[in-house]
Write a structure and sequence with these properties.
Blueprint (H helix, E strand, L loop, with lengths): L6 E2 L10 H11 L6 E2 H4 L10 H6 L21 E3 L2 E5 L2 E5 L29 H8 L6 E5 L8 H12 L6 E6 L1 H4 L2 H4 L2 H13 L3 E6 L9 H11 L4 E8 L7 H13 L4 E6 L13 H14 L2 H4 L2 E6 L2 E8 L3 E9 L8 E5 L13 E5 L9
Parallel strand pairs: 5-6, 6-7, 7-8, 8-9, 9-10, 10-11
Antiparallel strand pairs: 1-2, 3-4, 4-5, 11-12, 12-13, 13-14, 14-15
C-alpha cells in the first residue's frame, strides 16, 4: 500500500527548496507542523514562487504574522466527550486522528498537530458511547486530522461500531487524501471492500467529503481513485475554503467547480477562510469574495452552481447570501442555538471584513416564523 509515495516531515528533505529558504522557513515549522509527500510535491511548479499547489503545502513567512486564534470557531465549546463534538442536534463529529496526508498551511485545526493538544481520541469508545446515548444523532462525521491516514483495520472498527447504532443513518468521512495521495485508495482493495460493505450490508450510507482546493489536484490518479470509490456505492462531494493566491479568482474557481461536477463529485460548500492563527496570508476580504463566488456560480452549470458560500462560525454555519451597495446579507444555514435557526441578517457593509465578527452594525434581522425585526 502507498509504495509510490513517501511522506516528508522535514524541509531539508525537499531538494527543490534552496538552502536559504529551508533555513528561513524553519522558523515557521517550529511553530506550525509541516508534512507533505512526494506525490503532492510532484504537482508543484517549482519554477513559480507563487504556484498555488506550493502555497497549499509549503510554509511561508507570512504565517508568523500575528492574526486570528488557534480555535477560531471555538470548537472546544462543543466537545461533549473526548474526541467528540456535538454542535447541531442531528450531527456528531468524531476526531479520530491528529495526522493528515499533508498539512495544509491554512488548516483551521492546526492546533491538533501541536504537542500539547488533547482533543483527538485515538480510542473513540467514549465518543461512540455518547452517540449511542443520543438517539437524535442520525449522522456522524469522521474527521481529525484525516481519517484515511488510519490503517484500514482501524477505520473498519469505527465504521462497524457506528453501523451497529440503529439511529445512525449516515457516516461521512472528511478527507483530502484523494487529492494528496490517491494511491491510498488505488492500492488498498480492502478499503474499497470496507466502503462497499458499509453501503450494501448495513442499510446505511457512506459519504466521502473531499477537499480539492485547486483544479490541478484533479490528476488522472485522483480521478481513478474517485472512480473506484464511486463503484463502492459511496457518495462523494467536495468542499474548499476560498484561499488567497490559490483559488480566489473566478476562472480558477469556475474550473474547479465544473471539473468536480463532470466527474460526479458535486461541490458542497465553499468556505470563507477561518481567521485561524497563521492564516492571514490565505484569507480574502469577504465582500470581494462574494463577487468571486457569484461570478463562478453564474458561469458554472446548474449542478456545480448548487455550491453554498458559508462560514463555520462559533454560533453555526452562516451562509453569505450577497450584497448591495450599502448592505451585506447573511442567513443561518445551521444554528447551534435553535433561536437562530433560519435567521436572516442584514448588516452595513465593511470592506475590511474577513469574518462575521467584523460586522457590528446590524440593520435588520428576521426570523422564519412570524418575522421578527430588530433595528
Amino acid at each position: 500500500m502507498e509504495k509510490k509515495v513517501k511522506y516528508v516531515i522535514k524541509l531539508h528533505q525537499i531538494p527543490e527548496l534552496r538552502e536559504d529558504e529551508k533555513r528561513e522557513l524553519s522558523q515557521v515549522t517550529e511553530r506550525f507542523a509541516f508534512r507533505t509527500n512526494t506525490y503532492y510535491n510532484s504537482l508543484i511548479d517549482w519554477n513559480d514562487p507563487d504556484d498555488p499547489i506550493r502555497r497549499i503545502v509549503i510554509p511561508t513567512m507570512e504565517e508568523l504574522d500575528v492574526w486570528g486564534r488557534l480555535d477560531a470557531s471555538n470548537e472546544s465549546k462543543y466537545m461533549k466527550a473526548h474526541g467528540l463534538e456535538h454542535k447541531y442536534p442531528d450531527t456528531a463529529l468524531l476526531l479520530v486522528t491528529d495526522v493528515c496526508g499533508i498539512y495544509c498551511r491554512f488548516c483551521f485545526r492546526k492546533r491538533l498537530f501541536m504537542n500539547d493538544n488533547d482533543e483527538v481520541a485515538r480510542d473513540v469508545s467514549e465518543g461512540l458511547e455518547y452517540i449511542r446515548n443520543h438517539p437524535e444523532i442520525n449522522n456522524v462525521l469522521l474527521t481529525g486530522g484525516d481519517p484515511l491516514v488510519l490503517a484500514t483495520f482501524k477505520l473498519e472498527k469505527t465504521l462497524k461500531a457506528l453501523a451497529d447504532i440503529p439511529h445512525v443513518r449516515i457516516v461521512r468521512i472528511g478527507s483530502k487524501m484523494v487529492a494528496v495521495n490517491p494511491f491510498r485508495v488505488i492500492d488498498d482493495p480492502e478499503l474499497l471492500e470496507l466502503f462497499e460493505w458499509f453501503n450494501t450490508e448495513t442499510g446505511k450510507k457512506l459519504y466521502l467529503m473531499n477537499h480539492f482546493n485547486h483544479p490541478r489536484e484533479l490528476t488522472d490518479e485522483a480521478k481513478k481513485a474517485i472512480e473506484l470509490v464511486q463503484k463502492t456505492g459511496t457518495t462523494l462531494t467536495n468542499q474548499t475554503p476560498i484561499l488567497k493566491g490559490i483559488n480566489d479568482d473566478a476562472d480558477t474557481l469556475t474550473n474547479l467547480l465544473e471539473e468536480l461536477s463532470f466527474i460526479g463529485v458535486p461541490p458542497y460548500y465553499v468556505f470563507q477562510c477561518r481567521p485561524t492563527a497563521g492564516n492571514k496570508a490565505y484569507s480574502t476580504p469577504l465582500e470581494e469574495t462574494i463577487d468571486i463566488v457569484e461570478e463562478a456560480r453564474s458561469r458554472a452549470s446548474g449542478l456545480a452552481a448548487r455550491v453554498r458560500y458559508v462560514m463555520s462560525h462559533e454560533t453555526g454555519k452562516i451562509e453569505i447570501l450577497g450584497k448591495t451597495t450599502e448592505h451585506v446579507f447573511f442567513r443561518y444555514h445551521r444554528a447551534a442555538d435553535p433561536e437562530n435557526a433560519g435567521k436572516f441578517m442584514v448588516y452595513k457593509r465593511n470592506p475590511d471584513a474577513h469574518w462575521f465578527d467584523d460586522y457590528t452594525e446590524l440593520v435588520e434581522e428576521y426570523k422564519i416564523e412570524g418575522i421578527r425585526e430588530t433595528v
